[in-house]
Design brief:
The structure is a single chain. The protein is an alpha+beta fold. The protein folds into three domains: 151 residues, 3-Layer(aba) Sandwich (D-Maltodextrin-Binding Protein, domain 2); 149 residues, Dipeptide-binding Protein, Domain 1 (Dipeptide-binding Protein, domain 1, Alpha-Beta Complex); 220 residues, Roll (Dipeptide-binding Protein, domain 3). The chain is 29% helix and 18% strand. Strands 1, 8, 9, 10, 11, 12, 13, 14, 15, 16 and 17 form an eleven-stranded mixed β-sheet that branches. It has a four-stranded antiparallel β-sheet with strand order 4-5-7-6, covered by helices on one side. A hairpin with a 6-residue loop joins strand 2 and strand 3. Helix 1 crosses helix 7. The longest helix has 26 residues. The chain is globular. 49% of the residues are buried.
């Protein structure tokens, strides 16, 4: 069950400091409100205004990578299934019903017969097939193409070994029927059918405008909202799609997503009524956490998410596993969670977070052990840090330019590794697009990273570090690890499957170490629960936009009992 908001009761000194901080905040709010009056565009205020973090890099479902971008994309484009706002379990969407063959390898989906694009043209089974093949096409370069590798011949098509898309295991049987043929039984395939990469996109528009199709005028959408405007560093505005199959239950007419990365700006905007919802703890001023957390409009809860460091295993000296292990064992994670994050995060010593359905992870590794870390570094040829080259730690900047959690964590790591290992690290802060580009081309030494589970299964974390997965981005490859994950994907026996995944995570964290876990996330947002409705705490931190609305009424956002996920 999701946790209620964490309550932190500050000491008297902390209370005085918090009051002073809030007094200063009041002055900032007044100034901010004055400034806003001079720069507001003359257009109607949206019914719901959401502070969403960074500026989107793309709104193309096949290319989107960031959580903040996915929030917008999931409102624009829908797949065969969608996620329940209370439980985050897959439920019918474009597909009304489906059947699964007795061997678990064939899924037959039946589309609703009233589906149309926002521009009025019918959505058909051919559109589904096109969208999946497009995501797999190597020319698209989708970072999430691996989500479709469970289809027969999909991986070979993505790698270029097979050129004919007709050989991939997805086809339209008729106008309203899609059949998916899998390599093996896949316990979480229905969850994947609700993921953004598998959403249905307009093939005629993509064919006409190419890479810029998402910016075309009146772009056809399959989801509950249409794209009204995307103004860089200003807002993404969405309007309810009246032709969406479930438009009658779409609660809000006009929604704005604001790309604000500064915590103080986000809080100012919220406090002055300029924003209704703020996602993510990174948008809370850390110096005010103790006084803000007890408020009923600040919400913290358990989710499947891990904050970690990626190591570029193709660059010396990080190609040596002993160096990577030394770095991991020299990190005092409690110092980070108690000093910096301070919202109930739990120190992490493995990749998979607690709470994943039907999985008992292997024992923690990389525990804080500076003495062992120094021995490993010496064994790697750098006793006391002598001869260790200067290196950089990359982290992404946010729009506001103020001190951010990523930077504070980076400074703390810098100090720990200097004190414990005698090595010096430079900090490299870059914009989000540069950060993603440099990670993808392995142009870094160490980089901050995070992962929120795409579905409630350990595979969503462990599959990521298979050799050819687009989200690996460490250069680490291990054939045995790949075989363990593939064997787990094929295994129908839940106990045997769990053991294969445990073996894979043990190898990843004990022998490979391309990543250094730091802590497990908590979900976090702030909004007034007596005014904003339809947001529910769930383990995937998924909050469908079409379920939300603003207005008077009872508090309906109490934590929901999570539905048990049964093995299929």
């Amino acid at each position: 069950m999701a946790r209620r908001a964490l309550r932190v009761f500050p000491s008297r000194n902390t209370q005085h400091a918090a009051r002073r901080a809030l007094c200063s905040l009041g002055i900032l709010i007044s100034t901010f409100s004055f400034l806003l009056t001079g720069c507001v565009r003359h257009e109607p205020r949206a019914d719901l205004v959401i502070v969403n973090g960074i500026e989107p890099e793309t709104l193309d479902p096949a290319l989107v990578l960031g959580v903040s971008e996915m929030r917008i994309v999931s409102a624009l484009f829908e797949g065969l299934l969608r996620l329940d706002p209370k439980t985050a379990a897959p439920i019918p969407a474009l597909a009304e019903t489906w059947e699964i063959s007795p061997d678990g390898r064939v899924y037959t989906f039946h589309l609703r017969t009233n589906l149309v694009w926002s521009t009025g043209e019918p959505i058909t089974a051919d559109d589904v097939v096109y969208s999946w093949i497009r995501a797999l096409d190597p020319a698209t370069a989708s970072g999430y193409a691996g989500q479709l590798f469970y289809l027969t011949n999909a991986e070979d098509f993505n790698s270029g070994k097979i050129k004919d898309p007709a050989q991939v295991g997805v086809r339209a049987l008729d106008r309203y029927t899609v059949r998916a043929q899998l390599n093996d039984p896949t316990a979480f395939f229905l969850d994947l059918c609700a993921f953004q990469t598998l959403a249905v996109v307009p093939r005629q528009t993509v064919a006409k405008y190419g890479d810029n199709w998402i910016m075309s005028k009146n772009v056809p959408v399959s989801g509950p909202y249409e794209l009204v405007a995307w103004r860089i560093n200003d807002k993404v505005r969405l309007r309810k799609n009246p032709r969406y199959w479930d438009a009658a239950n779409t609660k809000t007419e006009l929604v704005d997503f604001l790309p604000i990365g500064s915590p103080i700006t986000a809080l100012n905007l919220y406090e002055t009524g300029g924003a209704d919802i703020v996602w993510d703890k990174e948008l809370v001023p850390t110096e005010l956490l103790d006084v803000l957390m007890p408020r009923p409009d600040f919400h913290s809860y358990t989710i499947l998410g891990t904050y970690f460091i990626r190591c570029n295993t193709t660059r010396k000296p990080f190609d040596d596993v002993r160096v990577r292990q030394a770095l991991g064992m020299a990190v005092d994670r409690e110092r980070i969670t108690k000093k910096i994050t301070r919202a109930g995060e739990v120190p992490a010593f493995r990749l998979t977070p607690p709470g994943i359905g039907h999985y008992h992870p292997p024992p923690d590794v990389l525990s804080y052990n500076p003495e062992r870390a120094r021995k490993l570094l010496a064994e790697a040829g750098y006793p006391g840090g002598k001869g260790f080259p200067r290196f950089s730690y990359m982290f992404n900047a946010s729009a506001g330019g103020a001190a951010k959690i990523h930077e504070k964590i980076a400074v703390e790591l810098q100090q720990m590794w200097h004190d414990e290992l005698g090595i010096d690290m430079e900090l490299r802060q870059v914009e989000w697009k540069v950060y993603l580009a440099d990670e993808n081309k392995l142009d870094y030494e160490l980089t901050r990273a995070s992962w929120i589970g795409d579905y409630n299964d350990p595979d969503t974390f462990l599959n990521m570090f298979m050799s050819d997965n687009g989200n690996n981005r460490t250069g680490w490859k291990n054939d045995h690890y790949d075989d363990l994950i593939r064997s787990a994907d094929k295994e129908n026996d839940p106990a045997k499957r769990e053991q294969l995944l445990r073996d894979a995570e043990t190898m990843l964290m004990s022998n490979g170490n391309p990543v250094i876990p730091l802590f497990y996330y908590v979900g976090f947002n702030y909004y007034e629960p007596t005014k904003i409705h339809g947001i529910y705490e769930n383990i995937l931190d998924i909050h469908p936009l079409n379920a939300m609305w603003k207005g008077p009424g009872p508090v309906d956002n109490e934590p929901q009992k999570r539905a048990e996920v049964k093995p299929r």
